[in-house]
Structure formats: structure tokens, C-alpha cells
Amino acid sequence: MKEEPNNKLITQSTITRTAGLDYTDTITASQSFYNIMGGRLFTIYSKGYYGYSISPAIAEAHYIDAWYTLGTPTIFQVSNWQEGASDNTVTHKSEIYGSGHFHRGFEVSGAGLVIYDKYIKVYSTCDQFGNVHRTYEMT
């Protein structure tokens, strides 16, 4: 799998282990999007692993990377790219994500018309029991 630059420095978290937690394998969540002819427009990825414990209830995300690849040729641009992880201490659920606005349109002399603009987030989640889910949302 080849990573393409996504206008952000790729950072990797330092692997730290908390005593008393179990750990998942490295999880990669991904979602590809295609045109009506079957050509790949772009794919979004997020990668990391989780630490979890039933008692005390803990779920912690260990972000490794998130990125996107664009199809060839591409008419899409990406803005507001974000990546990382979050831990919710109330629900004991953590997530690792990559997200951004994927858009296309026309531009002439700095003035443009956006035809398609979707915010897309690809992520994995883990709960205190070690249940991992991969999914995406698009708005």
C-alpha cells in the first residue's frame, strides 16, 4: 500500500504500554469511494491500536497514522484534513480517525463553483471489552 502526501507531516505516536491493559493488534480502517463507472476516486485510511480493560473500565487509543490516496486521474481536492485519536472516559470508548472535506468543482481566475463537497470521516473504535469496529460517516 503506497501512502500519498496529504499536506500534513506524518507523525507517529510513541508506543507506551500501561500496566494492566490488554492490547489489540494494529487496526487499519479504510473506505474507498468510486464513480458510477467503477473508477476509484479516493480512499481514506486510519491506523492504530487500542489498550483496554474491563475493570477498571478503560479504553485508550494509540494513534499511528491516517492518510488518503487519490485515484488517477483525479478531480478531487481535500481540505481541512484532520487525523488523530480520542478517548471518552464516560462511555469507555476510544477512536482513531482520519477526516476531511473532499470536493470538486470549477475554478477560473480564483473564482469557483463547488459541485460536490462531502465531509468524510473514516475511523475505528474500541470499547473497554476490546470490541473493535471500523466504519465511516459522510455528511
Give structural notes.
By secondary structure, this protein is mainly beta. The protein has a single domain (22-138), classed as Immunoglobulin-like (Sandwich). 0% of the residues lie in helices and 64% in strands. The chain contains no helices and 8 strands. The protein has strands at residues 22-23, 27-34, 40-53, 58-70, 77-88, 93-108, 111-127, 132-138. Strands 1, 2, 3 and 4 form a 4-stranded antiparallel sheet that branches. Residues 1-14 have low confidence and may be disordered.
Question: Would you kindly provide a brief summary of this structure?
Answer:
The chain is mainly beta and 139 residues long. 0% of the residues lie in helices and 64% in strands.
Please describe the topology of this protein.
Layout: E1 22-23, E2 27-34, E3 40-53, E4 58-70, E5 77-88, E6 93-108, E7 111-127, E8 132-138
Antiparallel strand pairs: 1-3, 2-3, 3-4, 5-6, 6-7, 7-8
